[in-house]
Amino acid sequence: MAGYRRYHARIVPLLSASVDMSADPLLGLNISAVERETGLSKELLRIWERRYGFPLPARDAQGDRVYPSEQVEKLRLVRRLLDRGLRPSKIVRSEVAELARLLESMGNGDKHGQSAADIDPLIRSLTSRDLGELQRHLQGELVVRGLRDFVAEYMPRANTRIGEAWFSGEIGAWQEHCYVEQIGQTVRMATNALNQPLAPPRVLLTTPAGEQHGLGLLMVEAMLRMQSCQTWSLGVSLPLDDIVMAATEFGCDIIALSLSASFPQREAAELAAVLRQRLPRAISLWLGGAGVAGLKRLPEGVVRIDRLVEIAPAVNAWRAGRP
Fold it and tell me: Residue limits of the HTH merR-type domain (predicted)?
C-alpha cells in the first residue's frame, strides 16, 4: 500500500488536472491511432462507448471521433489490466486512481519473471550476430506493445539487461553499441510515423556537459511526441551557456534534461539551481533520469520526472495551467 500511496499522490492529481481536450479536437487522437497505441480494436472502443459510456470522444469537423489524451491514458491502464485477467465490466467505469492501484498491486508479483521472458530473446538476437534478427525482434516488440509501452516499459528493462550483459561479458561492447543504434532507429522511425498535429508546449531536449548518454533523451522525446508536443533535440553534452541561449532563441516553453546514473548527484543539484536562476521564469525546467532520482529538494519551477509514464500527466498539467 505504501507504494500505491506514493504512486497515487504523484500521478493521479496530474491526471485529474488534464486539460479538456474536447474543446480542441486537434490535440486528441483519432480512433485508428488509439487502436494502434492501446491495442484495443475500433469496434471494441465503439461498443464500450455505447455500453459503458466510456470512452467519450469529441468529434472533429468531419464528425470523426477524436479521443482526448486523458481518455487514452485511462484506456492504456484498462488494456494492461485486461491482460492480467480482469473483465471490462469491472474496470471500464472505474476511476483512474482505482485502476492505477489495481495495476500497481498486480504488477509487483511477476515483474522479474516477465522481464526475463521479454528480454532473453533480445540477448539471443544480439549473440546470434545476425543484425536482421535483432531488427525483426525489436520491430516485433514494437508492434505487439505499441510505441508507448515499448518506450515506457520495455526499453528501461531492456537497457538495464543490456548493461548487465555487457558488464558480465555476456555480450561485447560492439554488441551493446549495436543495440543502442538499432533500438534508437526503431524509436525514431515510429515517432516520425505518428504524423499528428503538434501543439505547445515547445520542448527543448538535451543533456548537460559531460552527460553522453542519449538513449534516455530519445525515450523522453518519443513520449512527448505522443502527447503532440513540439520538440527540438540538441543531442548530448551541451554546455550550460548554450542551453540558456538555445532556450531563449527557440522561444521554448520547457527545457527537458536527461541525466543518467553516472552523472554526479551534487553536480545535478547545482545544475538545477543555476539553470533555474538563469532561465526566464516563463520557461519550465524538467529533469529526468537516474541521475536526479535521489535529489530531495529542487528549486521552485523545477519538475522532476521519475518515470516515463509521468510525462503525459505532466504535459496535461502544464497545458491545464495555461490560459
Answer: 28-105
Give me the sheet containing 199-206, strands edge to edge. 229-233, 199-206, 254-258, 284-288, 302-305
Contact 265, 298 (CB under 8 A): no
CB 301 within 8 A of CB 276: yes
- Could you say which of 3.90.380.10, 1.10.3720.10, 3.40.50.280, 3.40.80.10 is the CATH number of the domain covering 199-320? 3.40.50.280
What integer pLDDT is reported at residue 178 of this predicted model? 93
- CA-closest candidate to residue 243, choices 298, 188, 287, 201: 287
Q: Which of 19-33, 171-185, 238-252 has the lowest mean pLDDT?
A: 19-33
How many other C-beta atoms are found inside a 10 Å radius of the C-beta of residue 25? 20
Pairing of strands 29-30, 58-59: unpaired
Extract the C-alpha cell encoding 175: 554488441
CATH fold group of domain 111-192? 1.10.1240
**Position 220 pLDDT exceeds 80:** yes
> Would you state the CATH architecture of domain 2-107?
Orthogonal Bundle (1.10)
Model pLDDT, residue 39 = 65
Residue of 171, 203, 200, 174 whose CA lies nearest to 285: 203
**Cell triple for residue 176?**
551493446
* Cβ within 8 Å of residue 1, ≥6 positions away: none
Higher-confidence residue: 66 or 80?
Answer: 66
Residue 114: per-residue pLDDT: 47
pLDDT in tens, 134-152: 999 999 999 999 999 999 9
**SS3 of 254, please?**
strand
For the chain, the domains span 2-107, 111-192, 199-320
